[in-house]
Design goal:
elongated, mainly alpha, Na_symporter_ssu, 88 residues, two-stranded antiparallel ribbon, 3 helices, single chain, transmembrane
Length: 88
């Protein structure tokens, strides 16, 4: 019985870490990638009258970060229910 709980805890932790790492990759690509590294290439595309690289640096990154928070909360609630560690 104890081994099964340890295995479930390891699987839960692995899924949690994968979720966090995935969010961090998206965060890096949006903040550093789109805002700095690829800004020159993205500036050739216009969005709302502004170059896309500028838009990502000023507005897009904030929108993506908020979406990441919503996604993380949704995903962790789903994982909690899947591994039967939810509070409800």
């Amino acid at each position: 019985m104890r081994e099964n709980l340890d295995t479930q805890a390891q699987l839960y932790w692995r899924a949690n870490i994968q979720t966090v790492l995935g969010c961090l990759v998206v965060w890096f690509l949006v903040s550093f990638g789109a805002g700095i590294l690829f800004a020159d290439a993205l500036n050739g595309i216009m969005l709302g009258g502004f170059p896309l690289g500028f838009w990502f640096a000023q507005q897009g990154s904030i929108v993506i970060f908020l979406l990441l928070i919503v996604f993380y909360a949704w995903r962790m609630n789903r994982l909690d229910r899947q591994f039967n560690v939810d509070e409800i």
